[in-house]
Amino acid sequence: VSHKGNYVGEYYADLVVDDFVILELKATERISEKFEFQLINYLRTTDKEVGLLFNFGVKPEFKRKIFENSRKRN
Q1: Which of 24, 29, 33, 62 is most exposed, with the fewest beta carbons within 10 Å of its own?
Q2: Roughly how many angstroms between the first and final C-alpha of the chain, as a whole number?
Q3: pLDDT tens digits, residue range 6-44?
Q4: What is each CA distance from 46 to 13, 28, 58, in whole angstroms?
C-alpha cells in the first residue's frame, strides 16, 4: 500500500476469485462497520470493483460492496 507515493505497508484480501471479486471471510457475532470499511479499502486500492463480505458466525450473513473503477483516483 502506498500513500502519496510513499510505501506504508501491506495487506491481503482473504480470496480473489477469477481476478474479479474480492472475498473477505469472517467468523464473528455480526458484520461490523470495521469489516465493511476494510473491504471498501481493498476495492479502493485495487482494480477490483466487486467485493463480498461473508460472516460465518452464529447467524451467517453477507454484504456486497461495489466501488467502480471510474470513481478511483489514478
Answers
A1: 33
A2: 14
A3: 777 787 899 999 999 999 999 999 999 999 999 999 999
A4: 11, 26, 31
